[in-house]
Amino acid sequence: MKDNRWSSGYRRQLLAVTCLAGSVLVAFGTSARAAQVTKHSASRHHAPGHSTTRPATTPVRAKASPRPHALDASAAETVSVTSSRRALNGGGGMMRVETAPHAVQTVSKQFIDMRAPTSTALDLVQNLPSLNVTTPDSSGMEGGQIQSRGLTDLDMGLMVDGAPAAAAKYLSENVDSENLESVSVTPGSSATDLPVMSAAGGVMAEETRTPAQKRGGLIDFSYGTNNLSREFIRLESGEIGHSGVRGYFSFSNTHARSWMGAGINQRKHIDFGLQKDWKNGSNAKFFLSWNSADFIIDNYPTSDQFFRYKHTGQGYGRTNDKTSNNYWGNNNDHWNQIFISAPVHIALPSRLSLDIHPYFSFGQGWDASPGGTTTDETGATRGLTNYFLQNEYRSVGTVAKLNWEIDRHNTFSVGYWYENTQTIQSYPTSYQMPDGNAASPNNAAYLISAGDKQTAGYEIHSLFVHDTAKYFNDHLTIDAGFKFVMTNIWNKDYYGRQEGNRTAPLPQLSIGYRINNHHQVYLNVEGDYRQPSAVDLGWLYTSVAIPKNQYSIKEELGYRYHDDHIIADVAFFNYNVTNRIVDQYIGMNSYKPFNVGNQQMRGFDVMVAARPIHGFSPYASIEYLHASQDSNVFDPYLNTMLHSKGTQAVMAPHVIANFGLTYTYKGFFANGSVHYTGPQSVSIAGDQRIPGYVTDTLSLGYHFKPFMFAKSPTFRLNFTNLTSSVVRTGAMGAVYSAKDPSTVYSGNMASYTGYGNSFMVAPRFAMTGTVSTAF
């Protein structure tokens, strides 16, 4: 039974989708008219090795004299990408040649295709030097977390095709791995024109596939540990008539048991992509995904629970006892999400071009968790369910950018970014259903209290300018930009309303110099910020002041080398962060922000990979990080000032190291990787730590020869945690002290008070087998 809140949410969703669709249609129409105006114009192309993370704008130059290396726009891109994809890779796709004047770390399609289809972007980037990735399950449905240079994924912009996407905890909502072309991380920077409000930790960008020119598709089936089963199919339209439009549609269904305790996770997902290219260089891309998920909210253990499991085997997960308040069906996340990204590039006369990028996401659902027990009117004891109910999480925005190629050396851009994000959430309480499951929080038959209702959000207006200059035959590249962000932020609950207007000046300067075809040096300096998200605000009462914006000043100095055998990249960095916002895990997959003052991080990243040598492609990376807390912090739980100044920053290990090796011979392929994370502090006081640990993965497979309709029959096996290590891979969030109390659940045990942080634990050994083929 749905109440009026759900109906109004769908009306708002329909209105937003209608407006977005209108923007896309107008953009397509404008592109078509632009194509007619400039159909005889020549295009200027950049080298295929140029980073796609921060693309240089290349507007059409009317009646330009083509350089000797220029190619016709209708054919150049296909030839360049196809011929250079493997040439740009090292380490079996675990590293790519980059030329941007800032750090970029990329895994490409070659590596993605060796991993299990259940892999999310987090699984794919876990061997990059600047990241420590933690995931709670082996089926890819529960997302995870990122630590990056002393910051977290909540400090990062997570993007799909240049549009802001779901948080790392829900990264599986975004796109299926079969539809990913690459995943890039820029740990120290974010492009001026990107619509990001949390970029202190840089950007992780997922690029979806380009629809195929010919009709066909892909199908795969996976089965594995923990009763994992997954089916996927993609249908490619090829070019539709002679319109230049091509697209694809894919559907996947995933089912798996929880690896710890009882419970079943399920996910259904749709991806839909369209692309239209014009001969003059204009293009339009449309990507839509729909995700429906029901998964168990894990019980993340305290130190005591973890060591009990490690030493005695007694688990801490949910129970299959339907009479227990901790029954897995009473601890679930139910969510439906729609995501749309629709970038359009329009080539105009007089060396001008226009980029319009509307985006939209909308979600509804709830998290259910145990609420203890109570006695009803008949005197019977009944279990309770507490909910975090989001009737709406909606984000809609657009980026518009006008580019002018002033001359052969300079391209100038001016743009505007608008975004409106809002969450409508409440905290109902219901009786647990007789079968042990959580009822819908909108089911009046079980509802006890609708709970407090809260609306929080923000509206962003931002202006930016950017100039890319290239001199000395493009050996010297200078990127300079400035973004000014103006935000109205609000929070409304039962007790009142609070709002504020914030501004953030964000300068940026990057300089890259290509000494010759093998050597490059670069320097990057920029300011980035993070403001509390709409959901962050929703966990704060209006009696609590909205946290100040976090602001970062970052410097980065790097060197790159590549030849026919080796690719290498070294980056030195220094960050100074003021008003550092960290997040405390409060259960139900939700976090509450708090401020810990100032923080400093400095260190270096090293990546090196080899081209195939007799079929072997090695890869290695390491990061050294010195991150320190620069402020003392008051602990409201213990009512005392923590002497945290000078201690190791929370969730900032000194060392992260990786090694990978890929082997290919005829149809056979294999990839193995080992990851090490050093010891780290998990409390602001520095009185709780976790030791270093090692994780590993292995992929094996064989490409068979085409047979009948099967163009690329392939079988592969993917293994994780081969040694079945029982290790904590990271903290769920920050806590003030190891003495901070919290409510703990463990199997059939009654809830009790635990202390300190809670943790993600590496899932036990898992194997996934996959059969796939293109057709």
Describe the fold and architecture.
The chain is mainly beta and 775 residues long. 9% of the residues lie in helices and 51% in strands. The chain is built from 6 helices and 45 strands. It has a 25-stranded antiparallel beta sheet that branches. It has a 5-stranded mixed beta sheet with strand order 3-9-10-7-8. The chain is globular and about 80 Å long. The two termini are 43 Å apart. 51% of the residues are buried. The model is unreliable at 1-84 (pLDDT under 50). Residues 38-94 are annotated as: Disordered. It holds the Pfam family Plug. It is found in: Cell outer membrane.
Distance between the termini: 43 Å
Proportion in helices: under 10%
Q: Number of helical segments?
A: 6
Range of strand content: over 45%
Structural class: mainly beta
> In one word, what is the shape?
globular
Number of strands: 45
Radius of gyration: 26 Å
Mean pLDDT: 87
**Biggest sheet record:** 25 strands, antiparallel
Could you list the spans in which at least 5 consecutive residues all have pLDDT below 50? 1-84
Search tags:
775 residues; 25-stranded antiparallel β-sheet; 6 helices; 9% helix; disordered N terminus
What's the short version?
A hairpin with a 3-residue loop joins β27 and β28.
Topology:
Layout: H1 4-37, H2 73-84, E1 89-90, E2 95-96, E3 105-107, H3 109-112, H4 121-124, E4 131-134, E5 145-148, E6 151-152, E7 157-160, E8 163-164, E9 180-186, E10 203-208, E11 216-224, E12 228-239, E13 245-257, E14 264-277, E15 283-296, H5 303-312, E16 332-341, E17 344-348, E18 352-375, E19 381-405, E20 410-426, E21 429-431, E22 447-449, E23 453-471, E24 476-493, E25 496-514, E26 519-530, H6 534-538, E27 550-562, E28 566-578, E29 581-587, E30 590-595, E31 599-610, E32 616-629, E33 633-635, E34 640-642, E35 655-665, E36 668-677, E37 680-681, E38 689-690, E39 693-703, E40 714-720, E41 728-731, E42 741-746, E43 749-755, E44 759-761, E45 766-774
Parallel strand pairs: 7-10
Antiparallel strand pairs: 1-2, 3-9, 4-5, 5-6, 7-8, 9-10, 11-12, 11-45, 12-13, 13-14, 14-15, 15-16, 15-17, 16-18, 17-18, 18-19, 19-20, 19-21, 20-23, 21-22, 23-24, 24-25, 25-26, 26-27, 27-28, 28-31, 29-30, 31-32, 32-35, 33-34, 35-36, 36-39, 37-38, 39-40, 40-45, 41-44, 42-43
Pfam families: Plug
Subcellular location: Cell outer membrane
Membrane topology: Multi-pass membrane protein
